[in-house]
Structure formats: structure tokens, C-alpha cells
């Protein structure tokens, strides 16, 4: 089958007033001037303000990938969807029946290639900004390398071999690159990014003391995750475990430089009042109330899309898988991950648990935006949110280090310390001492599943790289929709999504 790439239809970069007002409440500070019409290298990339506008546009393009749950990671064992109506495209991944026409995955594909297009344009032109300082140009280039790398990282983990444009030429028949070659580019880009990006940003790219754009620490954390993934399937380059551990340790040892912390309470991560917080190593930020903004100013990580229909008038775009929920250790992390009480027919006095909902599934409480979600502040039209979509959290850095260190040098005291920090916050006891390398690694992967349940494919990517997709689905509860097709860990069937058909 021909693999088609929609590379923004060959259009030049356009930056409009609405486009530049989507991410931050104060993003009007980006707009000392209002660009008109098409922006080309001949008329743009000249000043520091031009670079800042290009950086904003790049952030907005990437945000489109994280403004709602996307279909491919429903293949993980942490999230499912009912099999009717407009939820079929989500459910098709849950039951391993997706095809190239699945509309719910195309937005992710387009958002990442749109980001790559913008990053390539910035990389080709940032050095031409004669009216910008060396640091401003360097930071812009580092940001573009980071964004191109993270986009390809999501693309190849989701679809495997994909087209790999590294310039602005338009070629809809571009051949697919080998996975190994894509990772070579990702690593090279991130190695550049970690030297070129600043430790901190200034101006509107800094909100409540938190860097909105990626920093050197973000690049190092992402590179650690890339190395960890390269050590697993499909590349299975075991020597990358040591590199992953070393890079994650750089972030841990220098966390004060970038201001990273593990928040004391897991529930604080999801409070709207705390949407800029120090656990975010890199995140996508939204503001649904930005005047005159269009798609991209908010996201759908709000109550209605992931609330039950019959009980609360939600859309039921997704809910938690039963077996995964039952294995999830009790404690404050589980309480903050899943909704406990369900209000039937708009009646606050009529409360049931998840087993007595119509769908008989637990629903996610994450991303509800309200500081304390309950029926009194739920609105029937509450589907548009300013919730932060976390891409890399500091807890992931700790767990990446724990796994990589154990797999490269054995589960030593530092590996235990890293995972136990995450477990302690979750209200769990420390891991037992003396675990084998395999048992320790399995414990970390399980911990990652609980820590990042329902978060943009993290669980799914872990199952793929550890070759445990079939194994995880063998635990599927009888209350789930029956699988239509069955993945194989030996043959790696259904490990990659079908390449979308994009007109």
C-alpha cells in the first residue's frame, strides 16, 4: 500500500494574529508587530521578534497533537472505548481492528508532520536573523531541533517506518525511512538541542516561574527516553540502557538548575490553579479563554469528553480498562486518577460507584481542569479545557533512570531510590530489596503504567518496547469488548498503527 504524507499541502508558513494567541494568556506579548499574508524566508527570520513568532507558531502546531486523546494508544491496556457511534475509531485500536482510514489517528499524524515542516523551515533560516543575538539564534535552532526530534519520536513509535523529510521540499511520494535511520536523526537532533537550548527562557515563554518551551533539561530527559526505547523493540540495542541511565542521571543530579521537582501530592498535578508546575519537564499549555482564538487555544481534556453519558451527560470518548484498574494499587494516586462517585441523571443525591454505571467502567479523573471536580461545578457544555497536557514529567525521568540503571548495571541503591520516590508519593511501600534484574525492570514498567495511566500513549509505548502487548491483553477482563484480532508478541503483529490515508 502506498504510504501518503500530507506535508501541509506545500503551503508557506502563515502566522496570523489568532494563531499567535493560542497558547498563553499573555501571548499578546509576542505580537509587537502583526504579520500580514504569507511569511517567506525573504521577508521573515530577520529579527529576534521574527524568531519568537516562529517559536510560538511551532509550539501551537505541536499542541494540536495533545489537545485530545488520540486513537492509536487505545491499544494499550489502560484505556478503552465503547463500540458504537462515533467511538468506533477509538475502539478499533482497542480491539486491534484499525485501518488506514481511521479518522481519529490522522490528526496526530498531521500535527507531527506540521511541526516537522515548521521546524525544518526554522532550521533552514534561523541563522539568517541578522538582527538577533547569537544566543537568540542558537536557542531558536535548538528549539527547532527538539521539536523535530520529538515529533519523529512519536511518529516512529506509533507507525514504524515513516517518511522523514529534513528540508522544505515537497514530495508526497517520499519513501519511508528505516526505523534505525529515524532514530539516528532523533538522537543527532537532541544532542544538538541539549547544547543549544537555554537553561531557562524569558518573557512570555516563562509562566509562573515555569518554562513553557523546552530547555536543556527537557532535551536531556527526552534523549534518555529515546535511548531507553532504542534498547527495546524494535531496535533492541541493549547498549543504550547505559546511555539512558547516564542521561537521566544528568537531569536528576542537576534538577535544581531547571527547577524540576516531584510534587508532594499527585492530585496537585491536575489542578487548574497549578497548571504551571515544577514537575513538568516539558508540557503543552492551553488557554480556552483567549479572545479571538481558533482551534488550539484549548483542549478536550475536560469533563465531558471522558465523563459517562447516561449518568452525567458526558461523551464517553474513553474510560479505564477494568483489569488494569483492578491491578492498580490503592492510594492517593489511584484516587486522583479515577473518578470515584458518579451522579445519576443530574441528581447529586443519587451517587453510584463505577460498577453501577451503565458502561460498568471506571472513568478517568485526570484532566478534569476543576480544582475539585464534583457535580456542582460540572456543566453540560463543559468540553473545552485549559488543562495542561504533560509530555514529560519529572517522575518519568526517575522511572527511566531506575529501569535503565537496573538493565545496564543491575538494580543498585540509586535505582531503588529513584523508583521509591515515585512509589512513596503514590502511598506505596518501597520495592522489596534483592529483586532480580528482570523482576526489578518489570516492577518499574508496572509503576510507569500506574503513574501515567491514560496519558498520551505512555503505557502503549512501554508495552511495545518491552514486547508485552499480547501478554497484557491476556489479562483482559470479560467485561471489555472482545478482541477482533489478536496481537502477537513473538511476531509483533499489531505493534504499529496502519499508515493513515491522507488526501
Task: Note the topology.
Elements: H1 48-63, E1 79-80, H2 88-94, H3 103-125, H4 134-159, H5 179-196, E2 206-207, E3 210-211, H6 216-231, H7 240-253, H8 255-258, E4 280-284, H9 309-312, E5 319-320, H10 322-327, H11 332-337, E6 342-343, E7 351-352, E8 389-393, H12 394-409, H13 413-425, H14 437-451, H15 458-465, H16 469-473
Antiparallel strand pairs: 1-5, 2-3, 4-8, 6-7
Helix pairs in contact: 1-3, 1-4, 3-4, 4-5, 5-6, 6-7, 6-12, 7-12, 12-13, 12-14
Provide keyphrases for this structure.
single chain; 503 residues; mainly alpha; two-stranded antiparallel ribbon; 16 helices; globular; disordered N terminus
Please provide a written account of the structure.
With 503 residues, the protein is mostly helical. 39% of the residues lie in helices and 4% in strands. It contains 16 helices and 8 strands. It has helices spanning 48-63, 88-94, 103-125, 134-159, 179-196, 216-231, 240-253, 255-258, 309-312, 322-327, 332-337, 394-409, 413-425, 437-451, 458-465, 469-473, and strands spanning 79-80, 206-207, 210-211, 280-284, 319-320, 342-343, 351-352, 389-393. It has a two-stranded antiparallel sheet with strand order 1-5. Strand 2 (206-207) and strand 3 form a beta hairpin. The longest helix is centred in the N-terminal third of the chain and has 26 residues, at 134-159. The chain is globular and about 65 Å long. The two termini are 14 Å apart.
Amino acid at each position: 500500500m502506498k504510504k501518503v504524507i500530507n506535508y501541509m499541502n506545500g503551503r508557506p508558513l502563515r502566522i496570523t494574529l489568532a494563531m499567535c494567541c493560542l497558547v498563553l494568556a499573555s501571548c499578546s506579548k509576542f505580537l509587537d508587530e502583526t504579520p500580514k499574508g504569507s511569511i517567506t524566508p525573504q521577508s521573515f527570520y530577520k529579527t529576534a521578534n521574527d524568531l519568537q513568532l516562529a517559536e510560538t507558531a511551532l509550539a501551537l502546531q505541536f499542541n494540536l497533537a495533545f489537545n485530545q486523546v488520540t486513537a492509536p494508544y487505545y491499544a494499550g491496556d489502560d484505556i478503552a472505548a465503547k463500540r458504537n457511534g462515533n467511538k468506533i475509531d477509538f475502539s478499533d485500536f482497542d480491539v486491534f481492528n484499525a485501518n488506514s482510514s481511521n479518522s481519529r489517528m490522522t490528526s496526530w499524524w498531521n500535527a507531527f508532520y506540521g511541526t516537522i515542516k515548521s521546524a525544518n523551515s526554522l532550521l533552514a533560516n534561523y541563522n539568517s536573523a541578522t538582527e538577533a543575538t547569537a544566543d537568540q539564534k542558537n536557542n531558536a535552532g535548538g528549539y527547532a531541533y527538539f521539536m523535530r526530534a520529538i515529533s519523529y519520536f512519536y511518529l516512529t513509535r506509533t507507525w514504524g517506518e515513516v517518511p522523514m523529510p529534513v528540508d522544505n521540499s515537497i514530495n508526497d511520494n517520499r519513501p519511508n525511512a528505516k526505523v534505525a535511520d529515524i532514530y539516528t536523526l532523533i538522537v543527532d537532533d537532541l544532542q544538538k538541542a541539549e547544547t543549544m537550548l537555554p537553561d531557562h527562557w524569558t518573557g512570555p515563554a516563562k509562566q509562573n516561574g515555569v518554562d513553557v518551551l523546552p530547555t536543556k533539561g527537557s532535551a536531556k530527559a527526552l534523549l534518555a527516553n529515546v535511548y531507553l526505547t532504542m534498547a527495546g523493540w524494535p531496535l533492541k540495542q541493549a547498549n543504550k540502557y547505559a546511555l539512558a541511565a547516564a542521561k537521566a542521571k544528568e537531569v536528576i543530579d542537576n534538577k535544581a538548575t531547571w527547577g524540576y521537582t516531584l510534587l508532594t501530592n499527585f492530585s496537585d498535578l491536575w489542578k487548574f490553579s497549578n497548571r504551571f508546575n515544577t514537575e513538568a519537564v516539558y508540557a503543552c499549555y492551553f488557554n480556552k479563554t483567549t479572545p479571538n482564538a481558533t482551534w488550539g487555544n484549548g483542549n478536550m481534556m475536560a469533563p465531558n469528553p471522558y465523563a459517562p453519558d447516561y449518568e452525567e451527560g458526558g461523551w464517553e470518548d474513553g474510560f479505564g480498562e477494568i483489569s488494569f484498574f483492578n491491578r492498580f494499587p490503592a492510594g492517593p494516586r489511584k484516587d486522583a486518577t479515577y473518578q470515584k462517585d458518579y451522579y445519576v441523571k443530574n441528581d447529586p443525591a443519587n451517587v453510584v460507584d463505577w460498577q453501577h454505571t451503565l458502561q460498568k467502567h471506571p472513568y478517568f479523573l485526570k484532566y478534569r481542569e476543576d480544582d475539585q471536580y464534583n457535580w456542582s461545578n460540572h456543566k453540560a457544555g463543559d468540553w473545552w479545557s485549559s488543562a495542561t497536557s504533560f509530555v514529560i514529567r519529572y517522575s518519568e525521568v526517575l522511572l527511566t533512570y531506575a529501569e535503565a540503571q537496573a538493565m545496564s548495571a543491575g538494580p543498585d541503591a540509586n535505582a531503588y531510590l529513584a523508583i521509591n520516590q515515585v512509589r512513596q508519593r503514590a502511598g506505596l511501600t518501597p520495592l522489596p530489596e534483592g529483586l532480580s534484574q528482570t523482576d526489578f525492570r518489570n516492577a518499574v514498567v508496572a509503576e510507569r503504567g500506574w503513574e501515567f495511566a491514560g496519558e498520551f500513549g505512555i503505557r502503549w509505548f512501554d508495552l511495545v518496547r518491552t514486547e508485552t502487548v499480547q501478554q497484557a491483553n491476556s489479562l483482559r477482563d470479560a467485561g471489555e469488548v472482545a478482541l477482533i484480532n489478536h496481537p502477537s508478541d513473538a511476531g509483533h503483529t499489531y505493534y504499529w498503527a496502519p499508515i493513515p490515508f491522507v488526501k
